Prior knowledge:
This protein has helices at residues 4-14, 17-30, 34-51, 56-65.
Amino acid sequence: MPTLDERLLAAHEAGNQAALVRLYAEAADDAKTVDAACFFLTQAYVYGLELAHPEVPALFDRLRAQGRV
Length: 69
């Protein structure tokens, strides 16, 4: 199975924004620091906003819980 990095790169290359929302959220879950997690959550949130993705409220809540919004 491809690594998370490989799946992210493939989603970027394919322009698959829905996958990017999911994959960046997954990267946030796997991040080793709060700063890294919030970076990935921000990426997921931005792509989610562009799509009106149903996960946007949950992503926003996660960022708010970390004092990032």
